[in-house]
Structure formats: structure tokens, C-alpha cells
């Protein structure tokens, strides 16, 4: 198993986690919706996302999501963020295979960053929002 993993995991490029500020017509409310974006020219395979919110005094439930394939130049909805979890750091740990190499990166939306003053155009989505750090 060790021989299958590079001694150093390559740097993630052209993959982002973004929070789009969108209108939810079902609940008639504006909300932050989290997407994973693949801006590579190749598909991502076996995408695993673990998300959680945390601060010094609070920790949210852990969400796990698996995508078999995320096609090139595409995106997938992961979850929406309830107003309560905007008060903590939201962390998305993303692991996937690209060209048979294991890739991993932690994306973070620090507490307080999801505000209208930080909104800008998002890659590949036809909406605006905030990109994770």
C-alpha cells in the first residue's frame, strides 16, 4: 500500500470549494450553498469530502460526501450552510484521484468571511460568492 502513495502528495491546482450566495425558491430565502469546482481538463475520481465547523467552544457534526466522478470543467453541490454555522470556521477536507495520483487539500471558510462585501464571480458557476482559502 505504501508503494502506491507518493512520498509527497502533489499540490492541488484548479480545484476549489466555493460558497455561492443563492436564492432557494423552495424556502424563499437567500443562503450559502457550498460547491466543489473542478476546473481541470481531466475528471476527478473517487472524490471524498469531509466537512465540519469548529471554533474554540463549538464543533458541528461531520458531513461526509463521496462523488464517484467529477467531470472536467464541472461542479457539484455539497451542502448548504445554515446561518448558525457561519459563526464558526467551516473546513472542507477534499481528497481525490487525478491521473491516478492521490490529491488532498483542506479548504477553509474562516468565521465571518461569508458576507456580502466579500462576494465575487465564481469560476464555472453562473453565480457569485466566496472562494475558500
Query: What is the architecture at the second tier of CATH?
Result: Sandwich
Number of strands: 9
Strand content: over 45%
User: What is the helix content?
Assistant: under 10%
Oligomer: single chain
Low-pLDDT residue spans: none
Fold and architecture overview:
- The protein is built from no helices and nine strands.
- Strands 5-2-1-9-8 form a five-stranded antiparallel sheet, with no helix packed on it.
- It has strands spanning 15-24, 29-38, 44-54, 63-70, 74-81, 89-98, 101-109, 120-121, 128-131.
- By secondary structure, it is mainly β.
- The mean pLDDT is 91.
- The termini are far apart.
- The protein has a single domain (2-131), classed as Smr-associated-like (Immunoglobulin-like).
- Strand 8 and strand 9 form a beta hairpin.
